[in-house]
Amino acid sequence: MSTNILDKIAVALVISTLSLTGVGIAADGQRQSQEEQKRDREEKRENSKQEREQERAQKKAAQEQKQEQHRAEQQQHQREQKQKQEQQRREQAQRQSDQDEKERRARLQQQQERVERQSEQIQRQQRAQQQQRQDQIQQQRQEQRLSQQRQQELIRQQQQRVAQYRRHLEQQERLARERAALLQQQKRMAQYRFQEQYLERVRQQQIHLRDHRFDYDRDPYFYTAPSYRYNRGGNYYETNEYGAKTLRQAVNYGYEEGFRAGRADRDDRWRSNYKDSYAYRDANYGYSGYYVNRNDYNHYFREGFRRGYEDGYNSQYQYGRFSDGNPSILETILSQILNFQDLR
Prior knowledge:
- It is a single chain.
- The protein is mainly alpha-helical.
- It has a domain at about 145-340.
- Helices cover about 75% and strands about 5% of the residues.
- It contains seven helices and five strands.
- Strand 1 and strand 2 (about 235-240) form a beta hairpin.
- It is rod-shaped.
């Protein structure tokens, strides 16, 4: 019986011990759960704090990006505005430059027109004075006619000149054909066209000479005494007003043909060389065989041709002017070339 009591007591002690142990274990579990909850709350607070900080950082970055973009847009706008202003300044400067150039050209045109009017007025006065002198000379020469013997001598010379000139024209035809072939070979088509036009004018001149019946007895050249003296090649020659008119015509025709020849070489982009032109070598356009020696006519034709070629090739009017669609030599240059000395 004592043994049963002791066993019961031992069992009771064991049960009590186990109960106390279970209560401790439960308390430890409860404390551990509370600590885990606390850690969770702290972790949530920390995460929430980090999220708020990250959101603030994102907002700040977005704001800075927006500000940077705004500054970039402002700078781009400023650059565009500056470029626009610069373009406006350039356009204004160009308009001003164009206006200045237009005014300058207008002034130059006005000056050129004034010079041309003055030149024309001077030439009209000179022609009027020349005509007056010629009329006076004509009147004087009517009173001083050449002798019959001298008239017959001049007529014979004239007939010889005409015959020689006609033979010379026939020879020139062959040379002209050779020259035309060379120009075509060199592909100088502008110069080729000019030569063909020149030859056509000479042919028309030949037709006129062939069909013309000259009246030696009534032509005043053959009974009019010399009124001018001129120097060529160091020698002096005398002629009357009809011969002087023919020599003036030689210079004028020479200038016109030279201007056309120079312009043709310029159009062909050919080097400047007036002596290379067939018209310069021929130098007979406008010559009828009457009143002056052919050598004299050729010499003064070439003097005009050389100056006309230079003006035509360089597109300038140093020796002449352009009037009524044709180039013509200045009266002052014509007078310098001929340098007639009045025998009165």
